[in-house]
Amino acid sequence: MFRALIVDDEQPAREELAELLAEVDDLTVVGECSNALEAIQAIHRLQPDVVFLDIQMPRISGLEMTAMLDPATMPHIVFTTAYDEYAIKAFEQDAFDYLLKPIDYQRLSKTIERLKNAKSVNNSLHIISDMALKHIPCYGHNRIFLLRLEEVEYLSSEISGVHVVGIHQSGYTQLTLKILEEKTPFARCHRQHLVNLDRVSEIQLLDNGAAEVITRAGKHIPVSRRYLKPLKEQLGIV
């Protein structure tokens, strides 16, 4: 049984696709989302096999959203859009398929057949995630929001998730430190910490051979011996 997630900012489009998918054997729609922030959380929570993803959405496009997903656990991505101009970009990123709206059931059936013939989600054509992030999707108490990279002081991996500490507000994200390190200019200073180099005020050397970063806002972040030298080089400190 394939588990599908529908992501589209237009409710009629979600309803239309859900009706088409309801006619497909061995496939169930496990959720619907109206934006990328909701979708990222839903993918982590529901672990769908395939995501039918609209490309043009407010704030974070479908193409940008895929760059926020971990390639190791990414579901099949089937882009849906009314504009064929995005097709080349989608396939450059190795989308599993690309459907033009209004979606034709016969064309959708071919996509479903390909999905069923795929050996496993891990063998699917994943997005080549070379697209840099512009924002970090965060969640806090009863809300989800975006933090621009320049607003972030540092990130810390904790039991409850990755803590994104901003200048004016903080939250948690479901993106991993590995993904954030690869797709942002933030630097690794510790196994559990990334720091925004533009927010570094100084590096203090400690008696035990370790060090810590002091941010412009006065935050203290540990720097392990392993990352001290490369961090100094990135900051231009000889």
Question: What does this molecule look like?
Answer:
With 238 residues, this protein is of the alpha/beta class. It contains seven helices and 15 strands. A hairpin with a 2-residue loop joins strand 8 and strand 9. It is elongated and about 70 Å long.
Using brief descriptors, characterize the structure shown.
238 residues, alpha/beta, five-stranded parallel beta sheet, five-stranded antiparallel beta sheet, 15 strands, 26% helix
In short:
The protein has 238 residues and is α/β, with parallel strands linked by helices.
> Would you count the extended β strands for me?
15
Poorly predicted ranges (pLDDT <50, ≥5 residues)? Answer: 119-129
Helix content: 25-40%
Q: What is the molecular shape?
A: elongated
- Percentage beta strand: 25-35%
The SS-based structural class is alpha/beta
Main beta sheet: 5 strands, parallel
Order of helix and strand elements from N to C terminus: EHEHEHEHEHEEEEEHEEEEEH
Question: Strand sequence of the main sheet, in spatial order?
Answer: 2-1-3-4-5
Write the layout of secondary structure elements.
Layout: E1 2-7, H1 11-21, E2 27-33, H2 36-46, E3 50-54, H3 62-66, E4 76-81, H4 87-92, E5 97-100, H5 105-117, E6 135-140, E7 143-148, E8 152-158, E9 161-166, E10 170-173, H6 177-183, E11 187-190, E12 193-195, E13 200-205, E14 211-215, E15 220-223, H7 225-234
